[in-house]
Amino acid sequence: MEDEDFVNFESGHFLELAKLLYNDVNDSEYKSALERTIITRIYYAVFLFLREWMKEENYGHLLKNNGEDHSIIPKFIYNNGPCDFQTNHDIANNFKDLKRLRRQCDYFLELPSPGTDESKKWIRLSTRDAILTAEFIINNFSF
C-alpha cells in the first residue's frame, strides 16, 4: 500500500464496506468467506472507532497501542463510557461479543464439538445482527 492510501481513512469505512459486502453475500459462491470478512471488518470498525473516541476524550494515555487495547477498551467503556450505567455495560458486552465472533471467523474452520469449552463460549450472531450491534455501539457515542 502506498502512503497516500492511509491518509483520511476513517473507521466507519470498514462498516460501510461490511454493509456493501453484506448486500452481495447471498449471491456468492464464497458466502462463508464473505461473511467472515464482513464480521472482521465490523469488529475493526467498532474497535478503531472506540479507540479514537478514547483518544479524543483524552484517555489515549490508557492505551498501549498493541493487542492489549482490545481488552482495555471494553473495560474502560464498562466503567467510564459516555452513557448511563446500563448502556455502557451493554456497549462493552456487545463489543466483547463482536471480538469473540471475529476470533471465531478468523480462527475456526468448523463449529467446535458440542460440550467443549469452546462450544459453550461460541457466539451465535447473524451477520445482519452484527451490523446492527456495531451501529448501536457507534450511535451511542459522539465527538
> Structurally, how many domains make up the residues?
1
Strand content: under 5%
Helix content estimate: 55-70%
What integer is the average pLDDT?
92
Order of helices and strands: HHHHHH
Number of helices: 6
Residue stretches low in confidence (pLDDT < 50, at least 5 long) are: none
**Straight-line N-to-C gap:** 29 Å
Structural class: mainly alpha
Number of strands: 0
Largest sheet, in brief, is: none
**What form results from the Cα inertia axes?**
globular
Work out the radius of gyration. Answer: 16 Å
Can you offer a commentary on this structure?
- This protein is mostly helical and 143 residues long.
- It has one domain (11-139).
- 64% of the residues lie in helices and 0% in strands.
- It has helices at 12-24, 31-56, 69-80, 85-107, 117-121, 127-139.
- Helix 2 (31-56) crosses helix 4.
- The radius of gyration is 16 Å and the shape is globular.
- It starts with 11 loop residues before the first helix and ends with a helix.
- 24% of the residues are buried.
Top keywords for this entry?
mainly alpha; 6 helices; 143 residues
Describe how the helices and strands are arranged:
Blueprint: H1 12-24, H2 31-56, H3 69-80, H4 85-107, H5 117-121, H6 127-139
Helix pairs in contact: 1-2, 1-6, 2-4, 2-6, 3-4, 4-6
Summarize the structure.
The chain is mainly α. It is built from 6 helices and no strands.
